[in-house]
Amino acid sequence: MTQDTAPLAQPLTLLAEDELIFRDSVRAFAEAQVRPLVRQMDEQAKIPATLIRQLFDLGVMGIEIPESYGGSGGTFFHSVLAVEELSRVDPSIGVLVDVQNTLVINAFSRWGNEDVRQRYLTRLASGTVGAYALSEAGSGSDAFALTTRAKADGDGFILNGRKLWITNGNEADIFLVFATIDPEAGYRGITAFVVERGMAGFAVGKKEDKLGIRASSTCELILEDCRVPGSNVLGEIGKGYKTAIETLNEGRIGIGAQMIGLAKGALEATIRYTKERKQFGKAIAEFQAVQHQIARAAVEVEAATLTVYNAARLRDAGRPFLTEAAICKILSSEVAERVSSLAVNLFGGNGFVKEYPVEKFFRDAKIGQIYEGTSNLQLQTIAKQIMG
Ligand SMILES: Cc1cc2nc3c(=O)[nH]c(=O)nc-3n(C[C@H](O)[C@H](O)[C@H](O)COP(=O)(O)OP(=O)(O)OC[C@H]3O[C@@H](n4cnc5c(N)ncnc54)[C@H](O)[C@@H]3O)c2cc1C
User: Fold this and answer.
1) Per-residue confidence (pLDDT) for residue 2, from 0 to 100
2) Which atom of ligand 1 is nearest to the CA of 213?
3) Pairing mode, if any, of strands 156-167 and 149-153?
4) Distance, CA 142 to ligand 1 centroid (Å)?
5) Residue to mutate, 241, 371, 384, ligand 1, most ligand atoms under 8 Å from C-beta
6) Rounded distance, CA 202 to CA 87, Å?
7) Fewer CB within 10 Å, N- or C-terminus of the chain?
8) What pLDDT is stored for residue 17 in this prediction?
9) How many angstroms separate the alpha carbon of residue 232 from the centre of ligand 1?
10) How far is it, in rounded angstroms, from Cα 331 to Cα 260?
11) Which are the contacts of 274, defined by CB distance < 8 A and separation ≥ 6?
12) How far lies 217's CA from each of 107, 172, 184, 190, 206, in Å?
């Protein structure tokens, strides 16, 4: 783990002025624009296009894109704050923003040449949603066992295969698709391609019907003789594995942010409810057993927050953060599950029905332990780093 010095060490949860202003603006937006739609979006399994437009207008769909490409010119930590604040109200909106920033834009910024950045970062900043397509039916944790094939064809490539579980599949127009140019070469054949909705041979397939984050679309992608120009290769041919590994290492911190936001949303709702609900002649918040349960949840949320903020600040400081990112994802997703489960318990029967917000948090929490590397895979990373 990183044991390095910094010129001016600051408490992790102290925000710089610009971070505070940004956090407060996202918080106000989430309360005013997202909260009234949460139940409807969950039931309809859909995010309204108008809300997505508002997210662009707010500046949270191109946070780290430099202003010269039309973005907000922010930091990775700003992305973490945005994902946390949105997830506090609705983790489906959190993941939409997370994938756009920490995976898609991150990959384009880091691995795209000037032509690719000009063509795509400008669009991603101004109104186009992106998606990140690595997983397939046969390759999840073992991501580099992917079989989507890219065959050279003149100055371009012909792609064939299917991608599964692709977040933002319904809303996106730009898809970062990982395919192999040579299955014999193993991970060294993997290459990242930019595929656009509307390209011949490309279609978005079935949308999954999910337990949680139901408003976030999760779709299959179908590539049948889809021709992609050579200028749409992102990064080097055969180096897509590096793009995938490195963006996912960062993306994981975004999932940590989603999970601490979720846990905070559930905890706040629980504190409010226990002060209102009366049994045995007093508010249930007055029972010491309940107070201790809530205090323990707050302990866990604080600990998870520190790991997320630390990983994000290490990333912004250009320091190694691999172990810290894995730690923050596993801890925050487990805390989100425990805190939202407690929230259901403390709401009693009301915790079990859709009229109240906590059953949704409980359903939404589960995904944190699955995507962007399951908890077992995070443990594997941590063990490898600390045990050699
Ligand atoms: C809602 C949702 C959104 C998603 N969004 C995206 C997206 O935008 N883009 C994308 O590319 N993918 C996406 N995914 C895919 C996601 O990343 C994978 O589901 C995840 O990596 C797990 O892969 P799997 O489902 O194939 O499970 P498997 O890999 O089959 O794992 C099943 C179980 O086996 C365990 N396991 C597997 N290998 C090992 C091992 N070596 N040691 C110990 N345990 C092991 C796992 O921990 C897990 O518990 C999404 C998935 C979901 C459900």
Assistant:
1) 56
2) 1
3) antiparallel
4) 8
5) 371
6) 31
7) C
8) 96
9) 27
10) 9
11) 283, 284, 285, 290, 294, 346
12) 21, 10, 33, 26, 10
Active site residue 372: yes
User: pLDDT tens digits for 156-181?
Assistant: 999 999 999 999 999 999 999 999 99
Ligand 1 midpoint to CA 136 (Å): 10
Pocket test for ligand 1, best of 252, 370, 380, 382 (most atoms within 8 A of CB): 370
User: What does pTM read for this prediction?
Assistant: 0.98
Cβ neighbours of residue 152 closer than 8 Å, sequence gap 6 or more: 181
Q: How far apart are CA 56 and CA 54, in angstroms?
A: 5
CA of 135 relative to ligand 1 center, distance in Å? 8
- As a whole number of angstroms, the distance between CA 104 and CA 96 comes to 11
Catalytic residue among 84, 136, 220, 372: 372
Distance CA 87, CA 266 (A): 10
Q: What are the tokens at 359?
A: 């059953």
- Cβ neighbour number for residue 139 with a 10 Å cutoff: 17
Atom of ligand 1 nearest to the CA of 208: 1
Exposure on the CB side of residue 236, measured as CA atoms within 13 A: 5
CA 311 to centroid of chain Cα atoms: 15
Q: For the segment 336-381, what is each residue's pLDDT rounded down to a tens digit?
A: 999 999 999 999 999 999 999 999 999 999 999 999 999 999 999 9
Cα radius of gyration (the chain): 21
Question: Where does ligand 1 bind, in terms of residues with CB under 6 Å?
Answer: 99, 132-135, 140-141, 165-167, 210, 218, 367, 370-374, 376-377
288-316 helix and 76-89 helix, angle to the nearest 10 degrees: 150
* CA 168 to ligand 1: nearest atom: 8
CB under 8 Å to 5, separation ≥6 — which residues? none
